[in-house]
Design brief:
- With about 350 residues, the chain is α/β, with parallel strands linked by helices.
- About 35% of the residues lie in helices and about 20% in strands.
- It has helices at about 35-45, 60-70, 120-125, 135-140, 140-155, 175-185, 195-205, 220-230, 280-295, 295-310, 325-330; strands spanning about 5, 10-15, 30-35, 50-55, 80, 90, 100-105, 130-135, 160-165, 190-195, 235-245, 250-255, 260-265, 270.
- A hairpin with an 8-residue loop joins β6 and β7.
- α9 (about 280-295) runs antiparallel to α10 and α10 (about 295-310) crosses α11.
């Protein structure tokens, strides 16, 4: 299997049990997660050598985060230790017409204040096949944006395929700031993943499709994919498409374009959603596995969409499924019958 590197922040997620609201509980469940950490766990589950790069404090809470990654087979050799705090986010799970809610408490986390001297990116990228990052990491802080750039440069020096999940987060930065940081980083990217909102807010592209109104004509996406490929030289442009009927009922599919062929996946009706946090990360992890191991972009995309549909049935940030389970769903087994 392949060596996959991801760079980002793993956070302590504090969530009420089930669908309780923040204000009515007196205890929270501890869950570990964060964009690129979630991707690393997915890749490790599929049998890859997955390495997560970050910085965490030396204290016990930092160690608990490291242990959470180790539990699922992620290599932690390149996690620097130091700094004062682990980022926290609170997540309240929505239901029906009440949306889920996230509150961040992540300022001044160890990775947000990490220095380039904390990492030897040439050593990290040596022998790697794939490097994945997301728009969340450069949004954390200017220092983290600099780390992202240095990691991308090292990946290119070592001939590593680079993927990005654009992942715009309005609670972390403005669209103007995102465009100023993200656009220059696109020259390092081979595989660009994002939805229609991400492409507009991070890169300034808007597809010719009325997503809110449910008019998601694939041709509208094909045109924007072609423009993005022409401007940035991507090898693949990929978009997920979520139809949000309620907090617990979504339609889910995706599209991929390699400069010649445009392919649209089959659609999954996910009802009920158990936990949609990490759904996009599970898609990225599935796509990385698919593009590394499967002969066509079509098969890679179907694997990614099936993986992320399954993730949304699992509590927590991590997608704890095997490649075999994903292939069974992608191959048509969606009835949920007991496996005996």
């Amino acid at each position: 299997m392949s060596k996959v590197i991801t760079l980002g922040e793993i956070m302590l997620r504090l969530s009420p049990e089930g669908c309780y609201r923040f204000v009515e509980v007196d205890k929270f469940n501890v869950i570990w997660g964060g964009g690129e950490a979630n991707v690393a766990v997915s890749c490790a589950n599929y049998g890859h050598d997955a390495y997560f790069v970050s910085k965490l404090p030396k204290h016990e809470i930092g160690q608990a985060a490291v242990n959470a990654l180790r539990r699922y087979g992620v290599h932690v050799d390149h996690i620097a230790r130091g700094g004062d705090r682990v980022g926290i986010y609170y997540c309240e799970t929505g239901a029906s017409m009440r949306p889920s809610k996230v509150i961040y408490d992540r300022a001044h986390s160890a990775i947000a204040e990490a220095d380039p001297s904390d990492f030897d990116f040439d050593k990290i990228m040596e022998g790697a096949d794939w490097f994945h990052w997301s728009g969340i990491t450069p949004a954390i802080s200017d220092k983290a944006a600099e780390l992202t750039k240095l990691a991308c440069e090292a990946a290119k020096r070592h001939g590593v395929t680079v993927s990005v999940d654009l992942n715009f987060r309005k609670k972390l930065w403005t669209s103007e700031k995102a465009i100023s940081i993200m656009k220059p980083l696109m020259k390092y990217v081979d595989v660009c993943i994002g939805n229609e909102e991400d492409a507009e807010l991070c890169l300034g592209f808007k597809p010719d499709a009325d997503v809110e109104g449910g008019n998601t004509d694939a041709e509208g996406y094909k045109g924007i994919f072609q423009q993005m490929m022409k401007e940035f030289g991507f090898k693949y442009v990929v978009s997920t498409l979520r139809e949000s009927f309620s907090a617990t009922h979504n339609g889910w599919k995706a599209m991929i374009y390699n400069g010649k062929e445009f392919y649209q996946s089959k659609r999954y009706d996910i009802n009920p959603i158990i936990d949609r946090v990490g759904g996009g990360d599970s898609f990225s992890g599935g796509l990385i596995h698919g593009l590394l191991t499967m002969p066509t972009q079509d098969e890679a995309l179907e694997f990614a969409v099936a993986a992320s549909a399954l993730k949304q049935t699992i509590p927590g940030d991590f997608n704890l499924v095997s490649a075999e389970e994903v292939k069974a769903l992608a191959g048509g087994s969606a009835n949920g019958r007991v496996q005996r």
